[in-house]
Structure formats: C-alpha cells, structure tokens
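Class I SAM-dependent methyltransferase
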Amino acid sequence: MDRAAGVRHVWTVDDPTAEAAEERLVEILNDGCLGLMLALGHRTGLLAVLAQASTPPTAAELAASAGLQERYVREWLGAMAVGRLVAHDPQTGRYRLPAAHADLLTDEGDANVAAFAQYLAVLAGVEDELVGCFRHGGGVPYSSYPRFQEVMEADSAQTVVAALLDDVLPMVPGLAGRLTAGIDVLDVGCGRGRALAVLARQFPRSRFHGLDLSQEAIDHLRAEHADLPSLEGRVGDAAVLPAPWGAQSFDLVTTFDAIHDQADPLAVVRGIREALRPDGVYLAQDINTSGTHAGDLDHPLGPFIYTISTMHCLTVSLARGGTGLGAAWGRPAAEALLAESGFSSVSTHLLPHDAQNAWYVAWP
C-alpha cells in the first residue's frame, strides 16, 4: 500500500524464489537456442525430409537425403534430440520426428512454427544497430533486414492468405460478388504480393495493384507473378499514393500487417479513405492485442509480438522519423485511428483459430 496516495499496487508477477527464477531463465535460454535450430531445420529442409522418411534415418542417411553435410546434420540432431523435439534410438542411431511435431514443424500441417522461428535469426542480425538506438534514439531502417520480406511472406501465408477466401472476405457483405464482377483493388504495404496473387487468381475480372516501400519486395512480386496481367506492383511511400492513383480510384483497399510500421499511420489511413470510391471499403488486418502490458499478460503470443515490435516494427518507423506505434498498439488504438481518419463505420472481427490478428472493416 502506498500510504501517502492511499493506492494499493498490484504487481503483474509475484516475486519468484531464486530456484524458480533460475529454472525459468535457463528454460528461456534453451528454448531460444531451439528456436534457432528450428529455423535451420526449416531452411535446410531437414524437418521436411525427416517428417517424410518412411524409415527413421541415421544422421548420415538424413544428410544424404537432404543433400547436406553429415557433420552439421549430426550436431543439429543433437540439439533436437536433447531438446525433446526429435526422438532418438541410441541402439540403432536412428532419429524420428514425432507425428505431432511434424504437423507443427512442416508445411504439411495447418501451421508451421519452424517458419515463424526464422524471425529469431533475422531480428538478431540487427542487434548491434538496435543497441545504438536504445542509447541514442533513432531507428533501424528496412534495408538492415535483408530476409525480412521473405520471412514475412511465410508468416502471411499461414495467418492471412490461408484465411483470406473462406474466413476474411465474408466479413464484408457482398464483397466476393463484387470481386467476381470486377473491381479495382489496392493493397498498401503489399510485400511480395502473395495475398494479392491469391485474389487475382480467384477473381480474374478484377484489377489488383500493390504498393510497398521495398524495391526487393516489388521486384519479387513482378517476377513471381508475371503470369497475372491483372496484378501490378509499384514502389512508393504509402503516405503519398503515386500517380495515376488518386482520390476515389479504388473499390477495395487492403492492408495486411502494415499500418503499425508506417512513419505516419494517420496520413496513410486518411489517404486510403480518400482513395476509396463512395461505395468502397477498407479491409485491414493488424496485430490483435489489448494495447496494454497488463492486458496482454495472457496473450499466447505476447512475448513474440512485443519482441518483433521492439526489433522491427517500432524501430523501422522511428528510422523514418515516424510515430513508432509498434506491433502491439492494440485494437482500441486501431479503432480510434480509423475513426480519426474519417471512416463513418468500423467493425472489428476476430477469427477463433487465430490469436495473432484482428480484422477491421471500414466504410467511408
């Protein structure tokens, strides 16, 4: 009790015993290292090969099947075995990926956690720059994350694209029908364009346009989806739509995990509203948090979200002199931003199978 103020302070974590604290911190250290091993297993194909093996392989057999060096594979298997992620038979020297783990660590299942683990190595690569930001301010620019677009695409494929047709489009009454008939669509912060490409293939009569700050992302979009004449990508700042795009140019504008990264989110969302035709609609996905530390204590992905926010989302905005919303800015702040931007009607949607994302449908 603060006797002077008459206020009882409620702490979010009870003081642990020394033994419990040590156990928790060692667990964090071990799990962080296993995360790096999962990312390696994903990128090298080891997890996929191990999951598909008809007979549990030895280290040498696994290396041969994956086309990799046995000595590295053997050490990787050591980390996975002692981490209880891979089963090991010491008598035969063979290794097996349990079915429950295979379902969560390869693209064969509904969610590939190993693909998400790639964030760990990508974010660790900017640690030196980020330490400088902690000390002196400023931010780390997009150019310091050479693989971020690639990893983000893998993330989006599982959390956004997988739900787009069956779960997300129905949030907007009549939208599928309008896309079928043919409308103009803009995706702001489109990245490599995977979501746009899915829509373009499903709705060939509509016209799809992507805008992103990253030249690498737009180059990939153009090369990967050159077979889609209805899809184009442009490099530009989302706060100022490039010509010939302007007021009332689009029937649908989308943003997927993009607004909180912007230098001036309010300008971007106001620009989106101006770009919509009178009967247009803005469909936005962003991170599903409460916007408060206390409110996010029980979020199943809380540490993951706040870490990515600290090491990417927050700092790339600050690098451009931005507001630095961060990924954990929360649903109330998002709804307030949409209202401030002039949207007359906003509805928020959550999908029961997706704790990471919130969806917003906004009408001019």
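thats it. Strands lie at 87-89, 94-96, 184-188, 207-212, 231-235, 250-256, 276-287, 345-349, 357-363. The chain has a mean pLDDT of 94. bye
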